[in-house]
Design a protein that fits this description.
Elements (H helix, E strand, L loop, with lengths): L4 H32 L4 H26 L2 H25 L13 H39 L2
Helix pairs in contact: 1-2, 1-3, 2-4, 3-4
């Protein structure tokens, strides 16, 4: 019985990319909570949103060079579930303001978690499609100018 080392390497890459993506999301959520309690919350939240978005876009650009579009969509699903899970865990354990007026095992909480997961997944998919399209346009244009 032969062991498939290439598959193991790819699984490690996917696991590592998932962990890094969820870590970026967790850091963004924790930073958002921290900034919300300061005097410059309005401006700080906007700056944090821009920095977090830039970090995730750069991360997706790096991932788009290493993974196929199918694996990028799989990672988008992992990131979306991770973001919703992190928000739920942090909200129910440390920061109840995130999940105000919701019980952990309520139907309302499940609905909101599913909707949040779907919205985040759609945002990641749109971002991935735009990155792949831009990369293909740049490759096409560089092929035209090379002649």
């Amino acid at each position: 019985m032969d062991f498939d080392w290439e598959n193991l390497k790819m699984n490690r890459k996917i696991l590592f990319a998932t962990m890094v993506g969820i870590a970026i999301e967790t850091l963004a959520i924790l930073s958002f909570i921290g900034i919300a309690k300061t005097t410059f919350a309005v401006l700080g939240e906007q700056i944090l949103a821009a920095v977090s978005l830039a970090a995730l876009v750069i991360f997706l650009i790096v991932l788009s060079r290493s993974f196929s579009i199918k694996l990028l969509f799989l990672l988008a699903a992992f990131f979306a579930v991770g973001a919703a899970s992190v928000l739920q865990i942090l909200g129910h354990t440390f920061f109840p303001g995130l999940v105000k007026d919701m019980d952990l095992l309520s139907w309302e909480n499940l609905q909101i978690a599913v909707i949040l997961t779907l919205l985040v997944f759609c945002c990641y998919v749109l971002g991935i499609l735009m990155i792949v399209a831009l990369r293909n346009m740049i490759n096409w244009y560089s092929g035209l100018t090379a002649k």
